[in-house]
Design a protein that fits this description.
Number of strands: 19
Strand order of the largest sheet: 3-4-5-6
Strand content: 25-35%
Number of helices: 2
Order of helices and strands: EEHEEEEEEEEEEEEEEEEHE
Shape: globular
Oligomer: single chain
Distance between the termini: 53 Å
Helix content: under 10%
Radius of gyration: 19 Å
């Protein structure tokens, strides 16, 4: 919250001469959680934005706020109490409606902070948008990574059960990935717990779908000095190993 980090504005790159930069009052309302908002382009060309628990729609050209959305329930969802967000796959089943899926988070920027186990889905451009909430089976996690898989399901992986984003600021790694199916019929659980890893993936971890439909999982840099003797002996040293995770559809026996 130093003055140098209190920038409540936007700019375009490459620079749009008609709209090069401007103020974003939405961010000034969530000071402390304003630095890394979650942003997605909606089907209409407008932007969904979420910071802390607040959400809104911005004009896709002027970036003026055009709609205030309901706040997502639960703990805080953006840096330093970081969750993850995904624009779910568009489908003809609901007219290719834009839906945003937000998972995880925590309460405050300290290793002692509890974490958020819920995820919320919202269709921002519905006439009366509302969050539909569900709970990850592996419990709360901060700094999760979300990946849309080849079959339209969502993998939630990495992160910690305690703490917040930053160096030496999280503990209790969550080793079990959770798989979410947005097409699950009402009344059934949309979640499946998958095989656990043995490698903690905390601050600066990543997950990415590869062309062969496996998932690359890498990273974890929870200490500032990653190469000193002290750092190498730390509880969670910088991680150089890389995992290749095969989702369930590659193990079904189907062609």
């Amino acid at each position: 919250n130093k003055p140098a980090s209190q920038e409540f504005n936007w700019e375009t790159l490459p620079r749009d001469p008609a709209h090069p930069f401007g103020n974003l009052p939405f961010l000034a309302k969530v000071i402390g959680w304003h630095m890394y908002p979650l942003v997605h382009v909606l089907r209409s060309g407008k932007l969904f934005i979420l910071a802390k628990n607040n959400a809104a729609i911005l004009d896709g050209t002027t970036f003026a706020q055009v709609k205030t959305l309901p706040a997502i329930p639960g703990l805080k969802r953006t840096y330093p109490t970081t969750g993850t967000s995904i624009l779910l796959p568009l489908t003809s089943a609901d007219g290719y409606k834009s839906k945003i899926f937000v998972c995880g988070g925590s309460d405050y920027a300290d290793v002692s902070s509890p974490t958020e186990a819920t995820c919320g889905t919202i269709a921002p451009e519905d006439p009366t948008p509302a969050w539909a909430m569900t709970t990850m089976p592996s419990g709360g996690r901060v700094m999760p990574d979300g990946v849309i898989l080849a079959d339209g399901t969502v993998l939630i992986v990495n992160g910690a059960a305690k703490g917040a984003q930053g160096f030496a600021n999280a503990d209790s790694p969550v080793l079990t990935p959770d798989l979410y199916d947005p097409a699950t019929p009402a009344g059934q659980s949309p979640w499946v717990k998958l095989a656990a890893t043995t490698i903690p993936r905390l601050y600066h971890s990543v997950a990415l779908l590869l062309p062969d439909a496996t998932v690359l999982v890498a990273g974890s840099n929870p200490i500032y000095d990653s190469i000193s003797d002290q750092a190498l002996k730390s509880k969670y040293p910088t991680e150089y190993r890389v995992d290749r995770f095969p989702p369930p559809y590659l193990q079904s026996g189907l062609p």
